[in-house]
Design a protein that fits this description.
7 helices; about 230 residues; flagellum; 9 strands; cell projection; Cilia- and flagella-associated protein 299; six-stranded antiparallel beta sheet; cytoplasm; nucleus
């Protein structure tokens, strides 16, 4: 091996899957010509028969782990593109209201329940309460904001009722627990701060909660319940 050959360590550590791959990157064509065996060439590189820095096996493993952790951190901290980004929703008030809440709901700062009453593809009237945050996590919302799909309640949502068949369902979600009430009908308890949200139009929605009926021709009726979540101390 030629001692006067310096192979600077410039490549990213992530480029090498194994320590042997890293050692191979330090072997020159001349090394292979004179030594004829890669294994011997690797050993000579590993024990320091090369000018410049050569990582030990332990240092390589530590640097690779650090590089992988840094990459994960970058990915986690990278700004996420919202499903509603760059969508023209001027003429669609329901979608516009959902778009302006998307980032807050995804971050957990806001919990939103959407009441929708409309007709399904069979022409049957349906209604239900949707946990917007749960749907955002489990569905791709771009087709909704692109108006390729219509947001409608499902039997898997917080509540669902088919007015024609009288079929009804109710389900807890990761964000809300359902509390049936004989006087106020459905109540939803936020699992983060334990505050109760009333959806009865005759009563106040509750602490840190607001009720907004959206004037729209997109649906028969849409009501949005916003709850600013505060973690219980």
């Amino acid at each position: 091996m030629e001692d006067d050959y310096a192979h600077p360590y410039e490549d990213s550590i992530e480029k090498f899957t194994t320590y042997e791959d890293y050692l191979d990157s330090q072997i020159t064509p001349q090394d292979r010509f004179y030594l004829e065996e890669d294994e011997l060439a690797r050993q000579l590189v590993e024990i320091g028969c090369r000018k410049g820095e050569v990582l030990t096996r332990e240092d390589f493993a530590a640097r690779r782990e650090a590089a992988e952790n840094a990459k994960k951190a970058r990915l986690q901290n990278a700004p996420k593109v919202l499903a509603s980004a760059q969508k023209n929703l001027t003429d669609f008030p329901v979608l516009r209201h959902l778009a302006c809440r998307e980032e807050l709901v995804r971050s957990g700062k806001l919990s939103t329940i959407i009441f929708i009453r409309d007709k399904n593809h069979r022409g049957q009237e349906i209604s239900g309460y949707i946990d917007y945050g749960h749907r955002l996590k489990t569905e791709n919302f771009e087709p909704y904001f692109d108006r390729k799909k219509r947001l409608l309640p499902k039997s898997s949502d917080l509540s669902f009722y088919n007015w024609d068949t009288q079929h009804s369902t109710s389900n807890e979600s990761p964000n809300f627990q359902i509390l049936p009430d004989h006087e106020q009908g459905l109540l939803f308890k936020n699992k983060r701060d334990r505050k109760v949200i009333s959806v009865d139009p005759r009563s106040e929605p509750g602490d840190n909660s607001k009720r907004l009926e959206v004037p729209t021709t997109e649906y028969i009726q849409v009501v949005i319940f916003d709850h600013m979540t505060r973690k219980k101390s």
